[in-house]
Amino acid sequence: MSVEPSADLQAPPGAWTEQAAALLDRVRNGRAATRQELGQGLRLGRKALPPLVSALLERGLLTDGATGAATAARGRRELRFAPDAGALLVAQFGATGLSTAVADLEGRLAGRHHETHDIAAGPERALGRVEELFDRMLDERPAGAPAVWGIGVGLPGPVEFRSGRPIAPPIMPGWDGYPVRDRFAARYRAPAWVDNDANLMALGEVRGGVARGQHDVVYVKIGTGIGAGVVSDGRLHRGANGSAGDVGHVLVGGDSPVRCQCGRHNCLEALAGGAALARDGTAAARDGSSPFLAARLREREASGGSVEARDVADAAHAGDSAAIALLSRSGRLVGDMLATVVNFYNPTMIVIGGGVASAGDLVLAAVRRTVYERSLPLATRDLRILRSADSVDVGLTGAAHMAADELFAAHALARWLPLGSPVDQPELTEANVGEERRPAVRPRRT
Ligand SMILES: [Zn+2]
């Protein structure tokens, strides 16, 4: 939606947009709803608040709740953030699949699509396919649907958040340094942001998933590879270059060296991820230790395939002892790593997601047992370890929240609010990340 700025707002002073950003932040995050609460929270005088609220109502960014009796005092009527002011295009890549959706500014998804896709086919094919899906979604929307305000993309590898490029991603040949962000921003004439998939899943869990309302959370994705996202005091912790939480390549012990996709040996991912389960499940099928997997291998080979991680889960479900041992080992190795993280970082919740985690309770049980055994009592006193309800949706939701957070950060808002919307401003992304961040400490919700 594009709203003509009224004359008095053509050139708002810096303080004005900062106040607008603070106000929107409070309303978006549910920390204030009435004019009274906003006035108190923002320390704005009686005269300063009304023009600010009117301007944001006029821009279509707020709606006046107008609930309750018609006689309700104006100060008590609820203001709400208008999530349909703009739309977000979101995409999430895994090692073996891709998902797309269109989201509103509060991360609600519509038009979800999921298909299998090999990330190793390279960026041209992967991003070309996502563009096709995005274009189709946009074509199918009714006339008058909100304009695209931003794009959020998750990739299964290390991403330099500042530039929106994957950097030496181990399972993504051909993607190193590819300008993913710039490609989407140029095509859709809107700002775009790209992040590691586990980061976005962590954000999605905290805003709308099983970790909703938690402030200190670690999300671990056990899929083909292993990665983690860290939420600290309610905000995603990316670290200096965007690699925080990249736990898949920490060294774990082992009897014999196992080569990892990254080129090193005995990485956590190489011993406990889905690809490792498929490899060791195949070995168990061949050496006779797993009759179940031997039968499954024959079926798969008949159609040109081989044992997959989900076959190991099926075998364990059927009571196959070799498969149970493999999944337990996975959980134990992930639990060892997490015990270190728990002692170091003291989260209140760990969420385990990804294909391997969703295959059954064995992995989760082994993770729990190991973390509680190996962490200090104070660190685990309030710790809960849960399984994600849905890694696909939570990644897409996280991608939408990432884009919305960036769009409504004070420094971005200062640039687009005077123009009415971020449409046709793909360059917003560049100034938007890295240098000028939000305040270091965001107040906890009360
Ligand atoms: Zn590695």
From TrEMBL:
Region entry Disordered, spans: 427-446
Pfam families referenced in this protein's UniProt entry, alphabetically: ROK (PF00480)
InterPro entries membership: ATPase_NBD, ROK, ROK_cs
Listed PROSITE patterns: ROK
SUPFAM superfamilies: Actin-like ATPase domain
PANTHER family xrefs: GLUCOKINASE, ROK (REPRESSOR, ORF, KINASE) FAMILY
Family indicated by similarity: Belongs to the ROK (NagC/XylR) family.
Record protein name field: ROK family protein
Species per Swiss-Prot/TrEMBL record: Streptomyces phaeochromogenes
